[in-house]
Amino acid sequence: MLRRGIERVVVFVDTSTPLSLDLKRGAPLQLGQIDMFLPGLFGLEFEGMDGQYWLNKGCDVSHNLVFADGENQFWDMVQQLQHKKRSGVAVTAQSHLHVLPNEFWGLEGGTQVEVCWVYLEAVPEWHQHLPQDVRDLLSDPDEDLFQNFPHYSTCLLYTSDAADEEDSVDLGGRRIIKKKKKE
Predict the structure, then answer these.
(1) Residue 2 gets which letter from DSSP?
(2) Is the distance from CB of 173 to CB of 152 less than 8 angstroms?
(3) For residue 124, is the peptide bond before it cis, meaning its omega torsion is within 30 degrees of 0?
(4) CA angle, residues 83, 89, 94, in degrees to nearest 5
(5) Is there a contact between 123 and 150 (Cβ–Cβ < 8 Å)?
(6) Which is more confident, 13 or 58?
(7) Is the pLDDT of residue 35 over 60?
(8) 3-state DSSP call for residue 9?
(9) Which residues pair with 56 in a beta bridge?
(10) In degrees, to the nearest 5, what angle opens at C-alpha 173 toward C-alphas 42 and 182?
(11) In this structure, are residues 18 and 33 in contact, taking their beta carbons and an 8 Å threshold?
């Protein structure tokens, strides 16, 4: 979308990582405080997790910097998200960002984009409107199914290890899809 010069974008950050209210401007970023892919868009890294760390995990994030004035823009976004989370409403933020040239992604840069960030979080205001039996189920500490609600890994990964399996494909850690047998 940035390559096409889209001027307004809504980004749904569908993450298994809750937004930490302890995340502070200027403090080192720690894994588990915010979605792991957001800081890289602004040229920031988690403490102890440089580009080589990611390469060792099979993920090259070295080309992900796409926004100018990254550090200030990132922290402004984080503060907006944290304010909304503290307020118990939908966790959203607005950013007006300058797009940088990025050869890897084919971005010429020099454009601007307005981004509405929607961060996946439990929203007390929404929760109050659920039927009581559903609220009870979501709050039950013995209910494993909803233990991390709403933070679940929804990324379906097709890994090379799974490709070696004879009859199934690994989708996010679950071998639930059977491959057709060659006849």
Answers:
(1) T
(2) no
(3) no
(4) 55
(5) no
(6) 13
(7) yes
(8) strand
(9) none
(10) 120
(11) no
